[in-house]
Specification:
There is one protein chain. The protein has about 425 residues and is an alpha/beta fold. It folds into two domains: about 110 residues, Transcription Regulator spoIIAA (2-Layer Sandwich); about 280 residues, Thymidylate synthase/dCMP hydroxymethylase domain (Thymidylate Synthase, Chain A, 2-Layer Sandwich). The chain is about 35% helix and about 20% strand. The strands form three sheets. Strands 6, 7, 8, 10, 11, 12 and 13 form a seven-stranded mixed beta sheet that branches. The protein has a five-stranded mixed beta sheet with strand order 1-2-3-4-5, sandwiched between helices. Strand 1 and strand 2 form a beta hairpin. Helix 1 packs parallel to helix 2, helix 6 crosses helix 10 and helix 8 packs across helix 10.
């Protein structure tokens, strides 16, 4: 790797004919080097990358780029036109409209784009914790946004600034108290772009894996047998609780999502279309009870004979920084699934309406504060909203290409 400085802007460049990144560990090493040099990004060549990087089905492109996205580093890829073909050509066209990864045919253009990146040390005064005395009252907070990315970002700032300080069962002695509140998040247009926030936990494949876990139940086989005290597998999956809810003494399981769809197809204004996850006979004494508690849906007719599925989701506990984005994203996909099923049953045109995410305890763990300040708040201070987010449409193909490998990985879990 070479370190280059253009007008005070530092970036890292790979050597054109030498391998640099062949796996996830290599990508992390390069990111660490960028941090040491205070670099704004990297300039790469095809030979710096794995041979199957340009095959979207391999998952290498999504895995590597997501690592750089997580640390808000730009990636410029310089190559010859023959590399830009097939599905990769479609991805390149979409990426070159964004602000994080772009493809160039010459170094000069790539360097010019890279050094436009802003790199500042964050000024946290704007987002300083207020630390007000709560007098024993857990604050009740409310945010709203047009898109998922906007609303989630606002919710983190709100709980960080206005949440109370409180300890949790998971704290180590040296951890500071968490920031906590009761939160309501309203997303007015759940599918509006930009839908993805760059600071979401994990990568694109992790997000796709979680969606499949909730929608398809790819990990339901990991749930333990509640009648066997020696079974130490998982306590639950959300898919199992929503689509295959069992009750002692009742032979048949309840597909609560199908029940919601049938109820609303028959009576669109019913207030009884809901699914629950809590099992009072198990969850009051188990180590890891379900955080998601209920999903409630209702239809309202709009213009042109279109019905809109309005959805309320409630969590008893929700990790705002490390889990809530994935929760919201997956449950919006479930909202789409329910809307499609109602349409199929009723013959009505059904689209998704607003999504409301409620959490009794919406929190940022104290053990995450350094990461939260250095990554999330730093990005808020130094980058525009469009640089902190990207369109789901730009990465949907990459995520879907990874589905077969994700299903295989899940099938091999909990087999011993």
């Amino acid at each position: 790797m070479h370190v280059k400085n253009q007008n005070g802007k530092i970036y890292i460049t790979g050597l054109p004919d030498q391998p640099l990144i062949s796996n996830e560990r290599d990508a992390i090493d390069v990111i660490g080097f960028c941090g040491e040099q205070e670099a704004v990004g990297v300039l790469l060549y095809p030979k710096n990358l794995p041979a199957d990087f340009f095959d979207l089905k391999s998952g290498q492109l999504g895995m590597i780029l997501q690592k750089f996205v997580n640390y808000h580093l730009k990636v410029a890829l310089v190559l010859s036109p023959e590399f830009v073909a097939g599905r990769f050509k479609e991805f390149a066209a979409e990426s070159n409209r964004g602000s994080h990864f772009r493809i160039f045919y010459n170094c000069a253009s790539a360097e010019k784009w890279l050094i436009q990146s802003r790199h500042f040390i964050a000024n946290f005064k704007r987002y300083k914790c207020k630390g007000a005395l709560m007098n024993g009252q857990i604050p009740v907070l409310f945010v709203e946004g047009k898109s998922l990315a906007e609303a989630w970002e606002k919710s983190l700032l709100e709980v960080y600034q206005k949440g109370c300080d409180i300890k949790t069962e998971y704290d180590k002695p040296e951890d500071p108290p968490s920031k906590d509140c009761t939160m309501t998040v309203v997303i007015h247009h759940p599918l509006m772009e930009p839908m993805i926030h760059r600071d979401m936990p994990g990568g694109l494949e992790d997000l796709q894996e979680y969606v499949l876990e909730v929608i398809e139940g790819i990990k339901d086989h990991c749930v333990r047998n509640a009648d066997n005290p020696d079974d130490t597998k998982w306590e639950y999956t959300y898919h199992q609780r929503l689509f295959d809810y069992t009750v002692p003494g009742i032979k048949e399981a309840f597909d609560q999502i199908e029940i919601i769809a049938q109820k609303l197809a028959k009576v669109p204004y019913t207030r009884r279309a809901q699914a629950v996850t809590w099992k009072v006979w198990e969850d009051n004494s188990c180590y890891d009870p379900a955080c998601l508690q209920s999903i409630w849906c209702r239809l309202l007719k709009g213009t042109n004979d279109t019905w809109f599925l309005n959805t309320n989701v409630r969590f008893r506990s929700n990790d705002a920084y490390k889990a809530a984005f994935m929760n919201m994203f997956a449950l919006i996909q479930l909202q789409c699934k329910i809307a499609d099923r109602i349409s199929a049953l009723s013959g009505k045109k059904v689209e998704i309406g607003r999504y409301v995410h409620q959490a009794d305890s919406y929190h940022i763990y104290g053990s995450y504060f350094d990461e939260f300040r250095n990554r999330f708040l730093n990005a808020i201070e130094t980058r525009d909203f469009d640089q902190r987010t990207f369109n789901y449409a730009a990465v949907k193909d990459i995520m879907e290409e990874a589905i077969p490998a994700i299903r295989q990985k899940a099938a091999e879990m909990c087999t011993e």
